[in-house]
Amino acid sequence: MITLKEMITPIPYQIKEDTTLKEALNIMKEEKYGLLPVVNEARKLVGVFTRSRLFQMVKLEKSLTTPIKDFVKRDVNSLKEDTPFKELQEIVRNSSVGTGVVVDAENRVVGLFTKADMVMGLLNVTRTLNLKQSLQTAMDHAYDGILLADETQTIQMVSPSLLELFNMDYQDVLHKKTNQVFPHFQISKIYESEEADISDFHEINGIKYIIHRIPVKQEGRVVGAIVKIMYRQLNEVNELFKRLQKAENKASFYHTELKKSENAKFTWDHIISEHTVMEKIKKSAAKAAKGRSTILIRGESGTGKELFAHAAHNSSARKDGKFVVVNCAAIPEDLLESEFFGYEDGAFTGARSRGKIGKFDLANGGSLFLDEIGDMSLNLQAKLLRVLQEREFYRVGGTKRIQVDVRIIAATNRNLEEMVKEGTFREDLYYRLNVISLFIPPLRERMMDIQVLSEKIMSELNRVIGTSITGFEPRAKQILMSYHWPGNVRELRNVMERAMTFAEHGKIKVEDLPDYMLGSNHVLVDETAVTQEESMVESAERVAIETALTKTKGNKAKAAKMLGISRSSLYDKLRKYQLNEK
Ligand SMILES: Nc1ncnc2c1ncn2[C@@H]1O[C@H](COP(=O)(O)OP(=O)(O)OP(=O)(O)O)[C@@H](O)[C@H]1O
Q: Using DSSP, how many helices (H) and how many strands (E) does the chain show?
Protein backbone atom coordinates (compact mmCIF):
# COMPACT_ATOMS: atom_id res chain seq x y z
CA MET A 1 0.00 0.00 0.00
CA ILE A 2 1.17 3.54 -0.80
CA THR A 3 2.53 5.69 2.07
CA LEU A 4 2.69 9.44 2.64
CA LYS A 5 6.40 9.36 1.80
CA GLU A 6 5.55 8.54 -1.81
CA MET A 7 3.16 11.47 -2.22
CA ILE A 8 4.93 14.46 -0.70
CA THR A 9 6.21 17.51 -2.54
CA PRO A 10 9.88 17.87 -1.61
CA ILE A 11 10.83 21.39 -0.56
CA PRO A 12 14.34 22.62 -1.27
CA TYR A 13 14.06 25.65 0.97
CA GLN A 14 14.63 25.63 4.71
CA ILE A 15 13.81 29.12 6.05
CA LYS A 16 14.74 30.11 9.57
CA GLU A 17 13.44 32.70 12.03
CA ASP A 18 16.16 35.16 10.91
CA THR A 19 15.16 34.84 7.24
CA THR A 20 14.23 38.35 6.07
CA LEU A 21 10.89 39.43 4.66
CA LYS A 22 12.60 40.02 1.32
CA GLU A 23 13.99 36.48 1.11
CA ALA A 24 10.66 34.96 2.12
CA LEU A 25 8.84 37.11 -0.43
CA ASN A 26 11.18 36.00 -3.23
CA ILE A 27 10.78 32.32 -2.42
CA MET A 28 7.01 32.56 -2.21
CA LYS A 29 6.82 34.51 -5.44
CA GLU A 30 9.08 32.11 -7.32
CA GLU A 31 7.65 28.84 -6.07
CA LYS A 32 4.07 29.87 -5.41
CA TYR A 33 4.09 28.08 -2.07
CA GLY A 34 1.17 28.92 0.23
CA LEU A 35 3.44 28.34 3.20
CA LEU A 36 7.05 27.71 4.06
CA PRO A 37 8.21 25.54 6.96
CA VAL A 38 10.49 27.34 9.41
CA VAL A 39 13.30 25.32 11.01
CA ASN A 40 15.86 25.89 13.77
CA GLU A 41 19.61 25.30 13.62
CA ALA A 42 19.07 21.56 14.06
CA ARG A 43 16.72 21.70 11.02
CA LYS A 44 13.80 20.81 13.23
CA LEU A 45 10.38 22.29 12.55
CA VAL A 46 9.51 25.35 14.70
CA GLY A 47 6.53 26.68 12.74
CA VAL A 48 5.35 27.88 9.33
CA PHE A 49 5.45 31.19 7.52
CA THR A 50 2.23 31.54 5.54
CA ARG A 51 1.14 33.82 2.71
CA SER A 52 -1.29 35.61 5.04
CA ARG A 53 1.56 36.32 7.53
CA LEU A 54 3.52 37.75 4.62
CA PHE A 55 0.61 40.08 3.72
CA GLN A 56 0.39 41.07 7.39
CA MET A 57 4.07 42.14 7.41
CA VAL A 58 3.60 44.12 4.20
CA LYS A 59 0.43 45.74 5.58
CA LEU A 60 2.32 46.78 8.72
CA GLU A 61 4.94 48.32 6.41
CA LYS A 62 7.76 46.23 7.84
CA SER A 63 11.06 46.91 6.12
CA LEU A 64 12.26 44.21 3.70
CA THR A 65 15.19 43.41 5.98
CA THR A 66 12.96 42.53 8.95
CA PRO A 67 13.37 38.89 10.07
CA ILE A 68 10.16 36.92 9.88
CA LYS A 69 10.61 35.65 13.46
CA ASP A 70 7.65 37.44 15.06
CA PHE A 71 5.29 36.43 12.28
CA VAL A 72 5.97 32.67 12.35
CA LYS A 73 2.83 30.62 13.01
CA ARG A 74 3.88 28.23 15.76
CA ASP A 75 0.90 26.00 16.37
CA VAL A 76 1.26 23.70 13.37
CA ASN A 77 0.02 20.18 13.02
CA SER A 78 2.75 18.34 11.20
CA LEU A 79 2.39 14.90 9.62
CA LYS A 80 4.86 12.09 10.24
CA GLU A 81 6.26 10.70 6.99
CA ASP A 82 5.31 7.11 7.85
CA THR A 83 1.62 7.92 8.42
CA PRO A 84 -0.36 5.00 6.96
CA PHE A 85 -2.52 5.74 3.96
CA LYS A 86 -5.79 5.06 5.79
CA GLU A 87 -4.98 7.52 8.58
CA LEU A 88 -3.93 10.09 6.04
CA GLN A 89 -7.27 9.81 4.27
CA GLU A 90 -9.00 10.60 7.57
CA ILE A 91 -6.76 13.58 8.31
CA VAL A 92 -7.24 15.07 4.86
CA ARG A 93 -10.99 14.53 5.01
CA ASN A 94 -11.37 16.27 8.39
CA SER A 95 -8.82 19.04 8.03
CA SER A 96 -9.61 22.49 6.63
CA VAL A 97 -5.92 23.10 5.93
CA GLY A 98 -4.91 22.51 2.32
CA THR A 99 -1.20 21.96 2.94
CA GLY A 100 0.63 20.14 5.71
CA VAL A 101 4.30 19.88 6.68
CA VAL A 102 5.73 16.39 6.65
CA VAL A 103 8.45 15.56 9.17
CA ASP A 104 10.58 12.56 9.97
CA ALA A 105 10.84 10.84 13.34
CA GLU A 106 13.20 13.58 14.61
CA ASN A 107 10.82 16.34 13.60
CA ARG A 108 13.01 17.34 10.67
CA VAL A 109 11.18 18.65 7.64
CA VAL A 110 11.03 16.32 4.66
CA GLY A 111 8.49 18.17 2.49
CA LEU A 112 4.96 19.41 2.06
CA PHE A 113 1.79 17.50 1.55
CA THR A 114 -1.12 19.05 -0.33
CA LYS A 115 -4.61 17.82 -1.07
CA ALA A 116 -3.59 17.76 -4.73
CA ASP A 117 -0.78 15.37 -3.81
CA MET A 118 -3.34 13.16 -2.16
CA VAL A 119 -5.60 13.03 -5.21
CA MET A 120 -2.67 12.27 -7.50
CA GLY A 121 -1.46 9.61 -5.10
CA LEU A 122 -4.85 7.99 -5.04
CA LEU A 123 -5.08 8.06 -8.81
CA ASN A 124 -1.72 6.36 -9.07
CA VAL A 125 -2.69 3.71 -6.58
CA THR A 126 -5.81 2.82 -8.51
CA ARG A 127 -3.97 2.86 -11.79
CA THR A 128 -1.14 0.67 -10.51
CA LEU A 129 -3.52 -1.63 -8.73
CA ASN A 130 -5.67 -2.15 -11.83
CA LEU A 131 -2.66 -2.69 -13.98
CA LYS A 132 -1.16 -5.09 -11.49
CA GLN A 133 -4.42 -6.98 -11.23
CA SER A 134 -4.76 -7.33 -15.00
CA LEU A 135 -1.17 -8.46 -15.23
CA GLN A 136 -1.61 -10.98 -12.45
CA THR A 137 -4.74 -12.38 -14.13
CA ALA A 138 -2.83 -12.73 -17.40
CA MET A 139 0.00 -14.43 -15.52
CA ASP A 140 -2.31 -16.82 -13.68
CA HIS A 141 -3.68 -18.03 -16.97
CA ALA A 142 -0.47 -18.09 -18.92
CA TYR A 143 0.20 -21.35 -20.67
CA ASP A 144 3.93 -20.71 -20.58
CA GLY A 145 6.05 -19.98 -17.57
CA ILE A 146 6.42 -16.21 -17.18
CA LEU A 147 8.56 -14.15 -14.83
CA LEU A 148 8.69 -10.36 -14.46
CA ALA A 149 11.76 -8.72 -12.99
CA ASP A 150 12.26 -5.05 -12.16
CA GLU A 151 15.16 -2.73 -12.82
CA THR A 152 17.24 -4.34 -10.08
CA GLN A 153 16.59 -7.83 -11.53
CA THR A 154 14.34 -8.60 -8.59
CA ILE A 155 11.44 -10.98 -9.30
CA GLN A 156 8.13 -9.13 -9.03
CA MET A 157 5.70 -11.61 -10.57
CA VAL A 158 5.70 -15.22 -11.71
CA SER A 159 3.12 -17.40 -13.36
CA PRO A 160 1.90 -20.58 -11.65
CA SER A 161 3.05 -22.64 -14.63
CA LEU A 162 6.65 -21.52 -14.05
CA LEU A 163 6.45 -22.45 -10.37
CA GLU A 164 4.95 -25.78 -11.35
CA LEU A 165 7.77 -26.56 -13.78
CA PHE A 166 10.49 -25.84 -11.21
CA ASN A 167 8.46 -27.26 -8.33
CA MET A 168 8.63 -24.04 -6.32
CA ASP A 169 6.30 -21.82 -4.35
CA TYR A 170 5.70 -18.08 -4.57
CA GLN A 171 7.70 -17.48 -1.41
CA ASP A 172 10.72 -19.24 -2.93
CA VAL A 173 10.97 -16.68 -5.71
CA LEU A 174 9.07 -13.43 -5.14
CA HIS A 175 11.23 -10.39 -4.29
CA LYS A 176 14.40 -12.43 -4.72
CA LYS A 177 17.10 -11.71 -7.26
CA THR A 178 16.56 -13.64 -10.48
CA ASN A 179 20.21 -14.66 -10.58
CA GLN A 180 19.94 -16.22 -7.16
CA VAL A 181 16.84 -18.27 -7.82
CA PHE A 182 17.31 -19.04 -11.50
CA PRO A 183 20.99 -18.48 -12.31
CA HIS A 184 20.67 -20.43 -15.55
CA PHE A 185 18.12 -17.91 -16.89
CA GLN A 186 21.15 -15.62 -17.29
CA ILE A 187 18.92 -12.62 -17.17
CA SER A 188 21.75 -10.10 -16.56
CA LYS A 189 22.72 -10.62 -20.20
CA ILE A 190 19.78 -8.67 -21.53
CA TYR A 191 20.14 -5.84 -19.02
CA GLU A 192 23.51 -5.30 -20.65
CA SER A 193 22.77 -6.14 -24.27
CA GLU A 194 19.28 -4.53 -24.13
CA GLU A 195 18.27 -7.10 -26.76
CA ALA A 196 15.74 -9.93 -26.48
CA ASP A 197 17.14 -13.39 -27.03
CA ILE A 198 16.30 -17.09 -26.89
CA SER A 199 18.34 -19.75 -25.12
CA ASP A 200 19.28 -23.26 -26.21
CA PHE A 201 17.33 -26.21 -24.90
CA HIS A 202 17.37 -26.83 -21.17
CA GLU A 203 15.91 -29.79 -19.38
CA ILE A 204 14.37 -30.47 -15.99
CA ASN A 205 12.74 -33.77 -14.98
CA GLY A 206 12.96 -34.86 -18.60
CA ILE A 207 10.97 -31.78 -19.70
CA LYS A 208 12.68 -29.70 -22.35
CA TYR A 209 12.29 -25.92 -22.29
CA ILE A 210 13.56 -22.77 -23.92
CA ILE A 211 14.17 -19.46 -22.15
CA HIS A 212 12.97 -16.35 -23.98
CA ARG A 213 14.47 -13.22 -22.38
CA ILE A 214 12.88 -9.89 -23.21
CA PRO A 215 14.12 -6.54 -21.85
CA VAL A 216 11.51 -3.91 -20.90
CA LYS A 217 12.69 -0.46 -21.93
CA GLN A 218 11.53 2.99 -20.92
CA GLU A 219 13.02 6.10 -22.45
CA GLY A 220 15.82 4.02 -23.93
CA ARG A 221 16.75 2.42 -20.61
CA VAL A 222 16.19 -1.18 -19.43
CA VAL A 223 13.81 -0.92 -16.50
CA GLY A 224 12.90 -4.59 -16.22
CA ALA A 225 12.68 -7.92 -17.98
CA ILE A 226 10.16 -10.53 -18.96
CA VAL A 227 11.31 -14.13 -19.04
CA LYS A 228 9.15 -16.57 -20.92
CA ILE A 229 9.74 -20.28 -20.39
CA MET A 230 8.33 -22.28 -23.26
CA TYR A 231 7.90 -25.92 -22.46
CA ARG A 232 4.43 -27.22 -22.97
CA GLN A 233 4.29 -26.65 -26.70
CA LEU A 234 7.77 -28.05 -27.01
CA ASN A 235 6.69 -31.32 -25.50
CA GLU A 236 3.66 -31.47 -27.74
CA VAL A 237 5.76 -30.88 -30.83
CA ASN A 238 8.22 -33.35 -29.48
CA GLU A 239 5.44 -35.91 -29.19
CA LEU A 240 4.35 -35.40 -32.83
CA PHE A 241 7.93 -35.62 -33.95
CA LYS A 242 8.37 -38.81 -32.04
CA ARG A 243 5.31 -40.39 -33.60
CA LEU A 244 6.73 -39.63 -37.02
CA GLN A 245 10.05 -41.05 -36.03
CA LYS A 246 8.37 -44.13 -34.63
CA ALA A 247 6.70 -44.81 -37.95
CA GLU A 248 9.95 -44.37 -39.81
CA ASN A 249 11.90 -46.56 -37.47
CA LYS A 250 9.58 -49.50 -37.37
CA ALA A 251 11.68 -51.66 -39.62
CA SER A 252 14.90 -50.98 -37.77
CA PHE A 253 13.02 -51.48 -34.50
CA TYR A 254 12.36 -55.11 -35.29
CA HIS A 255 15.91 -55.51 -36.33
CA THR A 256 17.26 -54.16 -33.06
CA GLU A 257 14.69 -56.13 -31.08
CA LEU A 258 16.09 -59.25 -32.66
CA LYS A 259 19.59 -58.33 -31.73
CA LYS A 260 18.62 -57.13 -28.29
CA SER A 261 18.01 -60.59 -26.95
CA GLU A 262 21.64 -61.39 -27.42
CA ASN A 263 23.11 -58.24 -25.98
CA ALA A 264 23.15 -57.09 -22.39
CA LYS A 265 21.81 -53.56 -22.40
CA PHE A 266 22.14 -52.57 -18.79
CA THR A 267 24.94 -51.82 -16.38
CA TRP A 268 25.06 -51.21 -12.62
CA ASP A 269 24.27 -47.56 -13.27
CA HIS A 270 20.87 -48.54 -14.62
CA ILE A 271 19.97 -50.08 -11.29
CA ILE A 272 18.58 -47.16 -9.35
CA SER A 273 18.60 -47.40 -5.60
CA GLU A 274 19.51 -45.49 -2.49
CA HIS A 275 18.88 -48.35 -0.15
CA THR A 276 21.93 -49.57 1.77
CA VAL A 277 21.04 -53.25 1.31
CA MET A 278 20.69 -52.75 -2.43
CA GLU A 279 24.02 -50.98 -2.56
CA LYS A 280 25.59 -53.94 -0.79
CA ILE A 281 23.97 -56.40 -3.21
CA LYS A 282 25.17 -54.37 -6.16
CA LYS A 283 28.71 -54.41 -4.78
CA SER A 284 28.80 -58.13 -4.11
CA ALA A 285 27.13 -58.85 -7.46
CA ALA A 286 29.76 -56.76 -9.22
CA LYS A 287 32.45 -58.73 -7.43
CA ALA A 288 30.81 -62.07 -8.23
CA ALA A 289 30.40 -61.04 -11.85
CA LYS A 290 34.16 -60.95 -12.31
CA GLY A 291 34.50 -64.67 -11.48
CA ARG A 292 33.25 -67.76 -13.31
CA SER A 293 30.70 -69.07 -10.83
CA THR A 294 27.03 -69.42 -11.50
CA ILE A 295 24.97 -66.61 -10.07
CA LEU A 296 21.47 -67.19 -8.77
CA ILE A 297 19.31 -64.09 -8.43
CA ARG A 298 16.30 -64.34 -6.16
CA GLY A 299 13.48 -61.91 -5.51
CA GLU A 300 9.84 -61.23 -6.18
CA SER A 301 8.61 -60.57 -9.68
CA GLY A 302 9.53 -57.11 -10.96
CA THR A 303 12.31 -56.43 -8.46
CA GLY A 304 14.93 -56.09 -11.18
CA LYS A 305 16.45 -59.57 -11.38
CA GLU A 306 16.91 -59.37 -15.12
CA LEU A 307 18.48 -55.96 -14.75
CA PHE A 308 21.03 -57.46 -12.36
CA ALA A 309 21.73 -60.27 -14.81
CA HIS A 310 22.45 -57.77 -17.61
CA ALA A 311 24.71 -55.72 -15.37
CA ALA A 312 26.54 -58.83 -14.12
CA HIS A 313 27.26 -59.95 -17.67
CA ASN A 314 28.34 -56.46 -18.70
CA SER A 315 30.85 -56.18 -15.90
CA SER A 316 32.28 -59.66 -16.44
CA ALA A 317 35.24 -60.67 -18.55
CA ARG A 318 32.66 -62.10 -20.96
CA LYS A 319 31.06 -58.80 -21.75
CA ASP A 320 32.08 -59.01 -25.39
CA GLY A 321 30.39 -62.40 -25.69
CA LYS A 322 26.64 -62.80 -26.10
CA PHE A 323 24.07 -62.41 -23.34
CA VAL A 324 21.39 -64.91 -24.19
CA VAL A 325 18.07 -64.85 -22.39
CA VAL A 326 15.83 -67.87 -21.97
CA ASN A 327 12.57 -67.53 -20.13
CA CYS A 328 12.10 -71.06 -18.90
CA ALA A 329 8.43 -70.44 -18.06
CA ALA A 330 7.52 -69.05 -21.47
CA ILE A 331 8.79 -71.84 -23.72
CA PRO A 332 6.49 -74.85 -24.21
CA GLU A 333 7.89 -77.91 -22.48
CA ASP A 334 8.33 -79.90 -25.69
CA LEU A 335 10.39 -77.15 -27.30
CA LEU A 336 12.54 -76.28 -24.34
CA GLU A 337 15.14 -78.93 -25.04
CA SER A 338 15.65 -77.90 -28.65
CA GLU A 339 15.68 -74.24 -27.59
CA PHE A 340 18.51 -75.05 -25.22
CA PHE A 341 20.56 -77.46 -27.24
CA GLY A 342 19.43 -76.96 -30.83
CA TYR A 343 18.94 -79.85 -33.19
CA GLU A 344 20.81 -81.50 -35.97
CA ASP A 345 19.79 -81.52 -39.63
CA GLY A 346 17.02 -83.97 -40.09
CA ALA A 347 16.12 -84.27 -36.46
CA PHE A 348 12.61 -83.23 -37.38
CA THR A 349 10.75 -83.77 -40.56
CA GLY A 350 9.40 -80.89 -42.61
CA ALA A 351 10.48 -77.34 -43.02
CA ARG A 352 12.56 -77.14 -39.87
CA SER A 353 14.80 -80.03 -40.74
CA ARG A 354 17.75 -77.83 -41.61
CA GLY A 355 18.98 -77.77 -38.04
CA LYS A 356 18.88 -75.13 -35.39
CA ILE A 357 21.43 -73.62 -33.14
CA GLY A 358 20.50 -73.77 -29.45
CA LYS A 359 20.87 -71.12 -26.76
CA PHE A 360 23.90 -72.88 -25.24
CA ASP A 361 25.68 -72.68 -28.57
CA LEU A 362 24.71 -69.05 -28.97
CA ALA A 363 25.93 -68.15 -25.52
CA ASN A 364 29.29 -69.82 -26.04
CA GLY A 365 31.93 -67.45 -24.67
CA GLY A 366 29.21 -65.32 -23.09
CA SER A 367 26.41 -65.69 -20.53
CA LEU A 368 23.15 -67.59 -20.56
CA PHE A 369 20.44 -66.02 -18.45
CA LEU A 370 17.93 -68.61 -17.33
CA ASP A 371 14.96 -66.61 -16.13
CA GLU A 372 12.23 -68.32 -14.08
CA ILE A 373 14.46 -71.34 -13.55
CA GLY A 374 12.04 -72.63 -10.91
CA ASP A 375 9.56 -73.32 -13.71
CA MET A 376 11.70 -75.87 -15.55
CA SER A 377 10.57 -79.49 -15.77
CA LEU A 378 12.47 -82.16 -13.82
CA ASN A 379 13.48 -83.80 -17.07
CA LEU A 380 15.16 -80.66 -18.34
CA GLN A 381 16.64 -79.93 -14.94
CA ALA A 382 18.57 -83.21 -15.28
CA LYS A 383 19.90 -82.23 -18.71
CA LEU A 384 20.85 -78.79 -17.53
CA LEU A 385 22.69 -80.26 -14.57
CA ARG A 386 24.72 -82.42 -16.90
CA VAL A 387 25.77 -79.49 -19.03
CA LEU A 388 26.72 -77.53 -15.92
CA GLN A 389 28.81 -80.44 -14.66
CA GLU A 390 30.41 -81.56 -17.88
CA ARG A 391 30.31 -78.32 -19.87
CA GLU A 392 29.16 -80.26 -22.93
CA PHE A 393 25.91 -81.46 -24.47
CA TYR A 394 24.34 -83.23 -27.42
CA ARG A 395 22.05 -81.55 -29.88
CA VAL A 396 18.55 -83.01 -30.19
CA GLY A 397 18.90 -85.89 -32.62
CA GLY A 398 22.68 -85.55 -32.58
CA THR A 399 25.46 -87.82 -31.48
CA LYS A 400 28.32 -85.34 -31.44
CA ARG A 401 29.41 -83.84 -28.12
CA ILE A 402 29.42 -80.10 -28.22
CA GLN A 403 31.68 -78.33 -25.77
CA VAL A 404 30.74 -74.94 -24.52
CA ASP A 405 32.08 -72.25 -22.30
CA VAL A 406 28.96 -70.64 -20.91
CA ARG A 407 28.39 -68.71 -17.70
CA ILE A 408 24.98 -69.32 -16.21
CA ILE A 409 23.06 -66.57 -14.51
CA ALA A 410 19.73 -67.86 -13.24
CA ALA A 411 16.80 -66.10 -11.64
CA THR A 412 13.61 -67.08 -9.93
CA ASN A 413 10.87 -65.73 -7.74
CA ARG A 414 9.96 -69.22 -6.54
CA ASN A 415 10.96 -70.68 -3.20
CA LEU A 416 13.51 -73.21 -4.46
CA GLU A 417 14.11 -74.66 -0.97
CA GLU A 418 10.40 -75.49 -0.67
CA MET A 419 10.47 -76.96 -4.16
CA VAL A 420 13.46 -79.14 -3.26
CA LYS A 421 11.56 -80.37 -0.21
CA GLU A 422 8.49 -81.08 -2.33
CA GLY A 423 10.63 -82.86 -4.90
CA THR A 424 9.81 -80.50 -7.76
CA PHE A 425 13.31 -79.06 -7.98
CA ARG A 426 16.43 -81.20 -8.05
CA GLU A 427 18.55 -80.79 -4.98
CA ASP A 428 21.83 -81.32 -6.87
CA LEU A 429 20.88 -78.66 -9.43
CA TYR A 430 19.89 -76.36 -6.60
CA TYR A 431 23.39 -76.64 -5.09
CA ARG A 432 24.99 -76.18 -8.51
CA LEU A 433 23.09 -72.97 -9.09
CA ASN A 434 23.22 -71.64 -5.57
CA VAL A 435 26.96 -70.94 -5.57
CA ILE A 436 26.53 -67.20 -5.40
CA SER A 437 23.05 -66.17 -4.47
CA LEU A 438 21.68 -62.62 -4.47
CA PHE A 439 18.38 -61.74 -2.91
CA ILE A 440 16.76 -58.53 -4.11
CA PRO A 441 14.37 -57.15 -1.49
CA PRO A 442 10.85 -56.22 -2.55
CA LEU A 443 10.16 -52.55 -3.20
CA ARG A 444 7.90 -52.16 -0.16
CA GLU A 445 10.90 -52.96 2.03
CA ARG A 446 13.02 -50.22 0.53
CA MET A 447 10.78 -47.26 0.65
CA MET A 448 13.44 -44.66 -0.11
CA ASP A 449 13.75 -46.36 -3.48
CA ILE A 450 10.11 -45.62 -4.28
CA GLN A 451 11.08 -41.96 -4.09
CA VAL A 452 14.20 -42.11 -6.27
CA LEU A 453 12.73 -44.58 -8.73
CA SER A 454 9.57 -42.54 -9.22
CA GLU A 455 11.65 -39.43 -9.92
CA LYS A 456 13.84 -41.21 -12.46
CA ILE A 457 10.91 -42.88 -14.14
CA MET A 458 9.15 -39.51 -14.31
CA SER A 459 12.10 -37.88 -16.06
CA GLU A 460 12.45 -40.76 -18.44
CA LEU A 461 8.76 -40.90 -19.33
CA ASN A 462 8.52 -37.12 -19.74
CA ARG A 463 11.17 -37.51 -22.38
CA VAL A 464 9.74 -40.61 -23.99
CA ILE A 465 6.00 -39.93 -24.00
CA GLY A 466 6.22 -36.15 -24.25
CA THR A 467 4.43 -35.25 -21.02
CA SER A 468 5.53 -32.42 -18.71
CA ILE A 469 4.84 -33.82 -15.28
CA THR A 470 6.62 -31.98 -12.50
CA GLY A 471 5.87 -34.09 -9.44
CA PHE A 472 3.11 -35.43 -7.21
CA GLU A 473 0.47 -33.71 -5.17
CA PRO A 474 1.13 -34.51 -1.49
CA ARG A 475 -1.75 -36.96 -1.11
CA ALA A 476 -0.87 -38.83 -4.29
CA LYS A 477 2.73 -39.05 -3.12
CA GLN A 478 1.56 -40.40 0.16
CA ILE A 479 -0.43 -43.17 -1.51
CA LEU A 480 2.56 -44.03 -3.66
CA MET A 481 4.81 -44.26 -0.62
CA SER A 482 2.49 -46.36 1.48
CA TYR A 483 1.22 -48.76 -1.19
CA HIS A 484 2.51 -52.34 -0.83
CA TRP A 485 3.74 -52.73 -4.46
CA PRO A 486 3.17 -56.46 -5.02
CA GLY A 487 4.46 -56.03 -8.60
CA ASN A 488 7.52 -54.09 -7.40
CA VAL A 489 9.41 -51.78 -9.78
CA ARG A 490 7.59 -53.11 -12.82
CA GLU A 491 4.28 -52.15 -11.24
CA LEU A 492 5.66 -48.76 -10.22
CA ARG A 493 6.66 -48.10 -13.84
CA ASN A 494 3.20 -49.09 -15.06
CA VAL A 495 1.45 -46.94 -12.48
CA MET A 496 3.65 -43.97 -13.36
CA GLU A 497 3.09 -44.37 -17.07
CA ARG A 498 -0.65 -44.53 -16.62
CA ALA A 499 -0.76 -41.57 -14.20
CA MET A 500 1.46 -39.44 -16.41
CA THR A 501 -0.65 -40.17 -19.46
CA PHE A 502 -3.76 -39.11 -17.54
CA ALA A 503 -2.24 -36.00 -16.02
CA GLU A 504 -0.24 -34.87 -19.11
CA HIS A 505 1.23 -31.88 -17.28
CA GLY A 506 1.42 -30.42 -13.80
CA LYS A 507 1.44 -32.68 -10.79
CA ILE A 508 0.09 -36.21 -10.54
CA LYS A 509 -3.11 -36.20 -8.51
CA VAL A 510 -4.87 -38.94 -6.60
CA GLU A 511 -7.40 -39.40 -9.40
CA ASP A 512 -4.57 -40.19 -11.84
CA LEU A 513 -3.65 -43.26 -9.80
CA PRO A 514 -5.41 -46.57 -10.37
CA ASP A 515 -8.41 -47.19 -8.10
CA TYR A 516 -6.94 -50.34 -6.61
CA MET A 517 -4.18 -48.27 -5.02
CA LEU A 518 -6.65 -46.11 -3.16
CA GLY A 519 -7.96 -48.83 -0.84
CA SER A 520 -7.85 -47.30 2.64
CA ASN A 521 -5.96 -50.25 4.14
CA HIS A 522 -2.88 -49.36 2.15
CA VAL A 523 -2.76 -45.76 3.28
CA LEU A 524 -1.14 -45.82 6.63
CA VAL A 525 -0.52 -42.16 7.38
CA ASP A 526 -2.73 -39.25 8.32
CA GLU A 527 -3.19 -37.28 5.11
CA THR A 528 -3.51 -33.90 6.77
CA ALA A 529 -0.04 -34.38 8.13
CA VAL A 530 1.53 -33.61 4.76
CA THR A 531 2.07 -29.89 4.87
CA GLN A 532 2.52 -27.61 1.90
CA GLU A 533 5.67 -26.02 3.28
CA GLU A 534 7.70 -29.19 3.06
CA SER A 535 9.54 -29.87 -0.12
CA MET A 536 8.51 -32.90 -2.15
CA VAL A 537 11.55 -34.80 -0.99
CA GLU A 538 10.94 -33.94 2.64
CA SER A 539 7.30 -34.87 2.58
CA ALA A 540 8.09 -38.14 0.83
CA GLU A 541 10.79 -38.86 3.35
CA ARG A 542 8.54 -38.08 6.28
CA VAL A 543 5.73 -40.23 4.88
CA ALA A 544 8.21 -43.06 4.30
CA ILE A 545 9.41 -42.88 7.89
CA GLU A 546 5.89 -42.74 9.29
CA THR A 547 4.83 -45.67 7.16
CA ALA A 548 7.89 -47.71 8.12
CA LEU A 549 7.21 -47.04 11.81
CA THR A 550 3.57 -48.01 11.42
CA LYS A 551 4.49 -51.18 9.57
CA THR A 552 7.09 -52.17 12.14
CA LYS A 553 4.81 -51.18 15.02
CA GLY A 554 7.24 -48.52 16.15
CA ASN A 555 10.34 -50.77 16.13
CA LYS A 556 13.02 -48.26 15.15
CA ALA A 557 15.71 -50.81 14.31
CA LYS A 558 13.37 -52.61 11.92
CA ALA A 559 12.07 -49.35 10.49
CA ALA A 560 15.63 -48.15 9.77
CA LYS A 561 16.34 -51.44 8.01
CA MET A 562 13.19 -51.16 5.97
CA LEU A 563 14.09 -47.62 4.98
CA GLY A 564 17.63 -48.59 4.12
CA ILE A 565 19.20 -46.04 6.45
CA SER A 566 21.31 -46.36 9.58
CA ARG A 567 19.66 -46.22 12.98
CA SER A 568 21.40 -42.97 13.85
CA SER A 569 20.23 -41.29 10.69
CA LEU A 570 16.69 -42.51 11.43
CA TYR A 571 16.97 -40.80 14.84
CA ASP A 572 18.18 -37.60 13.15
CA LYS A 573 15.23 -37.68 10.81
CA LEU A 574 12.78 -38.39 13.64
CA ARG A 575 14.03 -35.27 15.34
CA LYS A 576 13.89 -33.28 12.11
CA TYR A 577 10.26 -34.20 11.46
CA GLN A 578 9.37 -34.16 15.15
CA LEU A 579 8.17 -37.75 15.00
CA ASN A 580 9.75 -38.77 18.28
CA GLU A 581 6.57 -38.99 20.25
CA LYS A 582 4.88 -41.27 17.70
N1 LIG B 1 16.52 -50.73 -9.34
C2 LIG B 1 15.93 -50.50 -10.51
N3 LIG B 1 16.23 -49.36 -11.17
C4 LIG B 1 15.63 -49.10 -12.34
N5 LIG B 1 14.73 -49.87 -12.92
C6 LIG B 1 14.40 -51.00 -12.32
C7 LIG B 1 14.98 -51.39 -11.08
N8 LIG B 1 14.47 -52.55 -10.70
C9 LIG B 1 13.61 -52.92 -11.67
N10 LIG B 1 13.56 -51.99 -12.66
C11 LIG B 1 12.70 -52.03 -13.84
O12 LIG B 1 11.52 -52.74 -13.50
C13 LIG B 1 11.12 -53.59 -14.54
C14 LIG B 1 11.14 -55.03 -14.05
O15 LIG B 1 12.49 -55.42 -13.84
P16 LIG B 1 13.03 -56.91 -14.22
O17 LIG B 1 12.38 -57.40 -15.46
O18 LIG B 1 14.51 -56.88 -14.15
O19 LIG B 1 12.42 -57.66 -12.97
P20 LIG B 1 12.48 -59.22 -12.66
O21 LIG B 1 12.74 -59.32 -11.21
O22 LIG B 1 13.40 -59.89 -13.60
O23 LIG B 1 10.98 -59.62 -12.93
P24 LIG B 1 10.38 -61.10 -13.25
O25 LIG B 1 10.69 -61.98 -12.06
O26 LIG B 1 8.91 -60.86 -13.38
O27 LIG B 1 11.04 -61.55 -14.49
C28 LIG B 1 12.06 -53.33 -15.68
O29 LIG B 1 11.47 -52.37 -16.53
C30 LIG B 1 13.30 -52.78 -15.00
O31 LIG B 1 14.00 -51.96 -15.88
A: 23, 19
